[in-house]
Specification:
This protein is α/β, with parallel strands linked by helices and 737 residues long. Helices cover 23% and strands 21% of the residues. The strands form eight sheets. It has a six-stranded mixed sheet. A six-stranded mixed sheet has the order 12-20-19-18-13-17, sandwiched between helices. Strands 10-9-7-21 form a four-stranded mixed sheet, with no helix packed on it.
């Protein structure tokens, strides 16, 4: 059967439909119906009931003054009391996008850990993210949670950001389509998902007071577009606002972001919850905040007695309070939580869910380099030296509130010291299947040895004796702390160089949450980026190494060759601020500015194209064990078609990338569409993409505006290796969404 691909917003999907087995997520029509029902309920609420849904606590023994948790609360990120008289359930919230958060094992349970957000995004596969979202949403519901604090979609403006691993990419189209798919999957379980952190949350250094400077146009064409597409595609019922400031105002106290953009321009009907400890004053309610989360972390619980007094005295505040309740109720009704709330104790099929995590990691692993086809390894190798990276224990995971660990907890925990209520967040966790175990299972007849890499001479000795050496190199990332540079820690660069000198058949497996420098790259024939691999990461890595899986991942972010290539060679404030997990200013009058107008909307590969810089590995890069050709590009208006063919000897998946390259004769690079295409050896398939006009447009005072004229497009292996451009003419157009 000839399969035709079609795309509504630059992403190819099978026209025969998705085979997802879970229920349908709420649609825009469902949300509209829920909104009407919520309005009726607000009219039935008593005055004393109207500040119950507007604030919550963190039911955990953390922070300076942990509150007493209600009897029905579940240890997790948040709890908002319900209204039993009106049949409104309490909201029980858990982190995060990578699985139901471990919270230090307080619940004495575990969850299926998805690979990091970057690993998910490296699949370039919205259907896979929808499946992953459905899986973690089902586990959240089974544990009794009805709100998942997922949907991280902040663009990678600085790849040294400590939370880069949680997010998806540097491109608004790719990020928006992927996060929308993940949210659809989560909400198909009849629970609420957020999208976060709104907006321009680009660094952890000084995260509560760093002031992002950016124009309306630059924001709308980049970070805000990622959120907008994600909201359109996923219909998240809550938005979590961010810690940082934007043009002087806190993101959770920002009339421009919350009222003008989100609620007025985008006509979004869900509720805005604060990040934990991000509410500075009561006036945030007037500026668009609907719910104060983890209120004990703020200077005061503003959204209770103070809010009620304002509403009693001022009709404007009374109307705002009604709107706040209506929005929370809309989310509850759209997910039918009033009729079918989550209940703890449902059985979880961890084996089945582990297969989802395994597939995500298999599709997310990126083969960066493979000289002389060293990979895949033959399963009849005689002697294999595995070195470093706690490969005998598990795979590394990112830290912070998103930390997820499987049943039984981490296989190895490395505390980084410190004291205080947040010290527990600063420990490295290795979990899931150990790569060493998985490698031994693939190469049953080989003599597989392991050295931890702390003694370089010992590692070199093993490498000399082996047919092949596999080095696992790790770099931990965490919420609350950025990275100074791209170097590998703990002398790993020296270890890799020494092993590569001892054995010309050396493979480096990177487990990182950010790009890294590779001073040894010319000496190493093969490198794979495995990210943070989740519950089944070890199995997936071994599957790729030995060719059971043909790698198909593509980089969702640029790997710079050096920090000087970035718009900000140093993270703003990094050398001036002590690490503070909460990101508070050292003094009340401390100022920290980050000028995002330097690059404007040219984030990541767009900046590199504008400046003529060459990356270490460009956005969209990834190799395969087979070969592909994409040609025959034809562009008519906003429709692009071409053919993709597997020209090699084995089945594989190709990520076709369509780029805008010029507008009116002026160079301008934008990812305009993408398609992950599965192909048997020798097979060819036609692909059709419909280009979202916002990718081509400028944001103006009148809305989106396309200039009339010639637009050039090209197919790319990645953002730096483009085919011949093909031109089409577009008429001028101005519109609002």
């Amino acid at each position: 059967m000839k399969i035709q691909f079609q795309c509504l917003t630059g992403v190819a999907i099978l026209a025969m439909g998705s085979a997802m087995a879970h229920a349908a997520a709420p649609t825009a029509a469902d949300v509209a119906a829920a909104d009407a029902r919520a309005a009726a309920t607000v009219k039935a609420m008593r005055p004393e009931e109207k500040t119950i849904l507007t604030h919550g606590i963190m039911p955990l023994p953390l922070g300076p003054n942990p509150p007493k948790a209600p009897a029905d609360a579940i240890p997790g990120a948040g709890y908002i009391a319900g209204l039993p008289r009106l049949g409104i359930p309490a909201l029980k919230e858990t982190d995060a996008s990578l699985g139901v958060a471990y919270v230090g094992g307080i619940r004495k349970d575990g969850s299926t850990a998805l690979p990091s957000g970057l690993a998910q995004a490296a699949s370039w596969n919205p259907a896979l993210l929808e499946q992953g979202g459905a899986m973690i949403g089902s586990e959240a519901r089974a544990k009794g949670f009805n709100v998942l604090l997922a949907g991280g979609v902040n663009l990678t403006r600085d790849p040294r950001n400590g939370r880069t691993f949680e997010y998806l990419s540097e491109d608004p189209l790719l990020s928006g389509m992927l996060v929308g798919a993940a949210i659809r999957g989560i909400q198909s379980n009849g629970i609420i998902s957020t999208i976060k952190h709104f907006a321009l949350n680009g660094q952890e250094t000084g995260r509560k007071f760093v002031d992002i400077q950016i124009t309306d146009a630059n924001a709308r064409e980049s970070d805000l577009l990622a959120f907008q597409i994600g909201i359109e595609q996923g219909q998240p019922l809550s938005v979590m606002c961010a810690y940082n400031r934007v043009n002087g105002a806190n993101a959770c106290d920002n009339d421009y972001l919350l009222n003008m953009v989100l609620k007025k321009d985008w006509r979004w009907k869900g509720f805005v919850m604060s990040d934990w400890g991000a509410v500075p004053t009561l006036d945030t309610a007037i500026h668009g905040l609907d719910q104060q989360s983890g209120a004990e972390l703020d200077p005061k619980v503003f959204f209770t007695d103070d809010l009620a007094a304002k509403a009693k005295a001022d009709p404007k505040w009374a109307a705002r309070l009604d709107d706040m309740n209506r929005r929370v109720l809309t989310a509850i009704y759209a997910t039918n939580l009033d009729k079918n709330d989550a209940r703890p104790g449902a059985k979880i099929d961890f084996a089945k869910n582990g297969e989802v995590a395994l597939e995500v990691e298999k599709q997310g692993i990126v083969l960066l380099k493979n000289n002389a086809d060293l990979l895949p390894l033959a399963k009849n190798a005689k002697r294999i030296a595995v070195i470093g990276g706690y490969a005998n224990s598990g795979v590394l995971s990112g830290g912070g509130s998103s930390q997820t660990d499987p049943v039984g907890g981490p296989k190895a925990t490395i505390p980084l010291g410190g004291d205080g209520p947040w010290a527990a967040f600063f420990s490295q966790h290795y979990h899931g299947v150990a790569p060493l175990t998985a490698i031994k299972a693939q190469a049953k007849d080989a003599n597989v040895t392991y050295r931890d890499g702390t003694i370089i001479a010992d590692a070199v000795d093993q490498a000399k004796k082996a047919d092949v050496a596999i080095i696992f190199a790790t770099k931990w990332s965490t919420e609350g702390q950025d990275q100074a540079d791209f170097s590998l820690p703990n002398g790993q660069d020296a270890l890799i160089a020494a092993v590569a000198a001892a054995n010309p058949h050396t493979i480096v497996v990177l487990e990182t949450g950010n790009p890294v420098d590779m001073p040894w790259l010319d000496k190493v024939p093969a490198v794979i980026e495995a990210w943070y691999g989740g519950s089944r990461g070890g199995d997936a890595i071994a599957s790729v190494l030995f060719g059971e899986t043909n790698p198909s991942g593509r980089l969702p972010i640029t790997f710079p060759a050096r920090a000087a290539q970035l718009p900000r060679p140093v993270v703003d404030g990094y050398w001036d601020m002590e690490t503070d997990f909460m990101g508070n200013p050292p003094t009340p009058d401390t100022k920290l500015l980050a000028n995002y107008n330097i690059e404007g909307s040219d984030v990541g590969y767009r900046w590199f194209a504008r400046k003529g810089e060459k990356a270490l590995f460009p956005f969209g890069h990834g190799l395969s064990y087979t070969s592909f050709a994409a040609d025959g590009l034809s562009v008519k208006g906003l429709s692009a078609s071409f053919t993709v063919k597997n020209t090699g000897a084995r089945a594989g998946a190709y990520v076709a990338q369509l780029y805008l390259t010029a507008r009116g004769g002026e160079a301008r690079q934008r990812l305009a569409g993408f398609a992950r295409v599965e192909l048997k050896a020798g097979e060819a398939k036609p692909v059709t993409l419909t280009i979202d006009p916002r990718i081509l447009a400028d944001w103006t005072a009148k809305g989106w505006s396309i200039k009339g004229g010639t637009y050039s497009f090209a197919l790319g292996q990645d953002a730096e290796h483009l085919g011949a451009p093909v031109a089409t003419k577009l008429a001028a157009k101005t519109w609002k969404d």
